Fold this sequence. Notes:
By secondary structure, the chain is an alpha/beta fold.
Amino acid sequence: MTAGSLTSLDEAAEDGPVLAGGISLGAHLAAEWAVRNPGRCAGLLLALPAWSGPPSDAPASLAARASADLVDEHGLENALRIATDGVPPWLAAELTRAWRRHGTGLAASLRAASGHPAPTLDELASLDIPVGIAACTDDPVHPVAVAHAWARALPRAVVRETTLEALGADRESLGRATLQSWLQANATAPPGPHS
């Protein structure tokens, strides 16, 4: 899963610099790729980064490991039933879609995600590109403090806050917040090759 995402970004950048992005682990992978390929990335759209550097006991890492254990112990469908019990319908639908997409590889994918290091704050500081970050203030799994730490480390970043409640009502709200923050970072950044 992680290698495939990084390879996809390599392929996308064959025709010129790309605007890379993702949510949670996807945000980590986009930033990781940008650190390794600074001249090939025009900017980053990052939603809900979950940790910096090694995951240690970050809430998202613990949640992914617990979910992998649940799938191993109960099977996919029973694990989904347990995991979605009492959660908002939109989140239950999203979990169901995402988990079923992985099929028999779900537990292994969750474990890979839970242990994959994110870029360190020092690595993020090396990225002189516009970066838009969105965070949900009511999301305990992706602490808003992580998003702000990333923004402080990055030379040209803006954070916009939203909520999971807003995301439930408007499925585009998280993407919109990320794009708006990137546009602001791009507009206020000093002129450069990617402005």
